[in-house]
């Protein structure tokens, strides 16, 4: 995979390049083709009669590479699009939110790093709170209310009504409840607590939002 | 003819049970609910909602999924009309005149006509599927690996021609898609290919994960780049039922749109996408006063919407009869079927007639549901559309995570949607359209399998694809279509159709 840096590099040296987007796209395709060829280097190609595992990937990679070359060639001949502006904030927070969900939903270990499974009760709000900051218009209070209301909804929908095998809460939480409570009962109680918390946060902070501005917000919330 | 009636009545006896009607209703409702959200197309909707069908029996699950699909389609049109943000390629055209109608206070009529046109188109398409099901399944039986391979090549060529933007980029995307499908264990030798040694990649890349990343997450990132200027119509929605004058203007476009959409939908290679564009162009050509188009002409809503729905439904034909998914949505259906232990293809009809005919009959039920659900609920969709995107997208994000996690209970799949989301975002920024890549990926495995088999049968002789008459015919069609698309005069016309 190529990185955005290659793209911006070609953006600066304009001149013979008539379609910077074409050059960037071509480089991306060439990089992909090279990666595929390198990954299949040890595999047997076989013959047409008895195709080996590498035959198709290798020919496809060559095809991808040739398309990349053609794109670059056309970029010098034909007028084309300039490169679009890249934003870092959006993709960064979206990816961070997804990753936070992935590592907390179930017990996770990567090398020396080991995390206990926290279940949807933690993973859901994390995804919303972190992911929510992908836009400069993000407001903490709204995201807190959103996460406290959507998470219990999803817990009841997926865990209770649909019975999907999705971890809902950490085992430690089960210890806080009386021993004879079933998993479903704990789920419902937790969901109810969160929903009530959402309402409380919503009501308590209602007056304050008008004079407290977290992030510059020029639209004035009129959308 | 007797068969046709008895098959359909078998189907309706399955589809009209209380449970299945309820599932069709529920599917349409949640499908519309998610599909209405700006920037969420049918593919992301289905991938997100796939897990909620896991607990059902196979017939019920497929009926519900089909309902979700129609609901998502109609939801996309609703957004196009009310906010001028087309959720996906096929509702781009609806936004042109539909949104203008909405600004003139005729949003209700536009939505009503879209629903009625879709219902009519859906009814016709259901009958077409029922009529063509049996003969096409017969055709599938004379298809060998050679013919299958050539048919899929033809499908991919169509996909290239129908893609927006540069043909070269579309070809590159198809090749990348097929290349991605070869990741994983080799079918015959069991050797790992391009897996980086990751066990999760040994089974290949999961289609739902790829689709969710490319169409769900990347779409969020792209939407975040544009500062939001959503203008939900402030005008009154107006009455929903079109009056006599409206019907008089629209019944011909509905008929023509249905025909165009149904025919194009059958084509392998995402022909359904072209339906609305073709219908719109045709209506504009036939109109006495073409300048009305783009300013709120009801024909510009009725024709494309009918074509859209007819195509959405007839694209089930290649899947149900030949086992070849013609587009990404159908590929998700394949995924859903295999989860329930059904391998799509000609044998479904013979081995599992209640499922096959029940699903076809439920398509009609689903279309009726759309009409029933949407007309009274328009007010709710309008309110939903007023929720700002800064609150919508974190919710979409969490639903995507939960949906993907539930499919296999693997956190790694969740991480992969982040990765493919980034890849999709880069592709969009470099001007590549991701749809052909997804189709290449969908057909890739089947293609390799059939290519290998065909070559084993012919002892490694590549000319086998040209000496088999059916296969040769399909390849000739593919070559002709590609050459025509490359001709300068046609290319100009193609660009016009897509940029309008």
TrEMBL record, chain A:
Pfam families: TctB. InterPro entries: DUF1468 (IPR009936). The chain crosses the membrane at residues 21-39, 59-77, 86-105, 111-131, 143-166, 186-204. It comes from the Bacteria. Keywords: Membrane, Transmembrane, Transmembrane helix. Residues 24-167 form the DUF1468 domain. The keyword Ribosomal protein does not apply. This is Tripartite tricarboxylate transporter TctB family protein. It comes from Microvirga makkahensis. The lineage of its organism: Bacteria, Pseudomonadati, Pseudomonadota, Alphaproteobacteria, Hyphomicrobiales.
UniProtKB/TrEMBL annotation, chain B:
Residues 23-439 form the DUF112 domain. The keyword Transmembrane applies. Pfam families: TctA (PF01970). Keywords: Membrane, Transmembrane, Transmembrane helix. The chain crosses the membrane at residues 12-37, 108-132, 138-160, 167-185, 197-218, 254-280, 324-343, 355-375, 387-407, 414-432, 470-490. Coiled coil: none annotated. InterPro entries: DUF112_TM (IPR002823). PANTHER family: TRICARBOXYLIC TRANSPORT PROTEIN. This is Tripartite tricarboxylate transporter permease.
